[in-house]
Amino acid sequence: MKRILLVFCIMMCTMLVQAQQLGDYMEIGGVPGFVFYLDESGEHGLVMSFYKMDEKDAKKLAKKGNLAEEKALRLALPEKEKIKVKSKEMDAYREDLASLLTDDGKYNRMAIADYCKKNNLDLSIFKGQDFAAFLGDGWFIPGDNELEKFAKFYVGGLGEGNSFSVKAIINNAKEKCSDPLVQDILYRIAFCGIRSSSLKDPKWGFRALVRWAEGGFKVKEHYEIVDKIKTTKFSYGSIETTKLINGLKTCAVHEF
After folding, report:
1. I want to staple 162 with a disulfide (CB 3.0 to 4.6 A). Which of 114, 148, 156, 171 is the partner?
2. 29 CB neighbour count, 10 Å cutoff
3. Cα 252 to chain centroid, rounded
4. Residue 229 has pLDDT above 90, yes or no
């Protein structure tokens, strides 16, 4: 009897995993997120958490959508006094990390934690890392590899060959998932851009997935993963060569 129950449970778990589709709402450890990557088997992939927010915004999210307040508050990292680090010291830390970090977010999570432990540093001085730790075991800030997968999921990939309009960002969110709550979160993440845990150039720090445009207002945009981030510049009705950025979102990723 016990063996039959065990087999039944395994079958049910397998069915639940196989049922996951790209864009589906999914929780891991009570953290709300959505599926943005599936491997060839369709049984395993990556979940991206909803973005980091303060307690006030978390409660607003709970009231706005079909999400319990306790789950929304899983995204609200408690505020603490900011640790001041001198510029020269931070430059030295980034210089060290540039030779340690890769395009793989999971590896970077361990590398940064080990570096902080070795040098007696607080994890929070490296943007996003304390958020991943707050969410629990297995969560990590996406590296360039994971952000490239997100771009492929959302618009087909990076670069001009996968250009889109601002209107398409909204439409894509609706096409990628049926859950209104995920649609709203997905749109905000796609519009604002996402922090990366990869670091190529110590001068500029951690990279980010951002919307990129060159030329006038009507030009289409595409996604790039960049080192240096600049705000939009307007000059007599035109947009200069720019990485478009409107408040990067900090999200974490978990394997399933």
Report:
1. 156
2. 11
3. 5
4. no
Cβ-Cβ contacts under 8 Å for 99 (sequence gap 6 or more): none
> What residues does 194 pair with on adjacent strands?
209, 249
Tokens 């589709």 found at: 21
Tell me, what's the pLDDT at 234? Answer: 46
Per residue in 7-22, pLDDT (tens digit) is: 434 434 443 444 689 9
On the CB side of 18, CA atoms within 13 Å amount to 7
Interatomic CA distance for residues 207 and 61, integer angstroms: 28
Q: Please count the CA atoms within 13 angstroms of the CA of 184 that sit on its side-chain side.
A: 9
Contact 69, 53 (CB under 8 A): no
Read off the DSSP letter of residue 249. Answer: B
Provide the greatest CA pair distance for the chain.
Answer: 77
Which DSSP string corresponds to 206-241?
Answer: S-EEEEEEEEETT--BEEEEESS-----EETTEEEE
Pairing relationship of beta strands 208-216 and 222-226 according to DSSP bridges: antiparallel
CA 78 to the chain's CA centroid: 19
- 3-state SS, 23-82, equals CCEEEECCEEEEEEEECCCCCCEEEEECCCECHHHHHHHHHHCCCCHHHHHHHECCCCCC
pLDDT at 3 over 60: no
Token representation of residue 109: 């999570």
For residues 34, 39, 132, 251, the Cα torsion angle rounded to the nearest 10 degrees is -40
Calculate helix-pair angle for 87-98, 105-119, nearest 10 degrees. Answer: 130
Nearest residue to 212 (alpha-carbon basis) of 244, 180, 248: 244
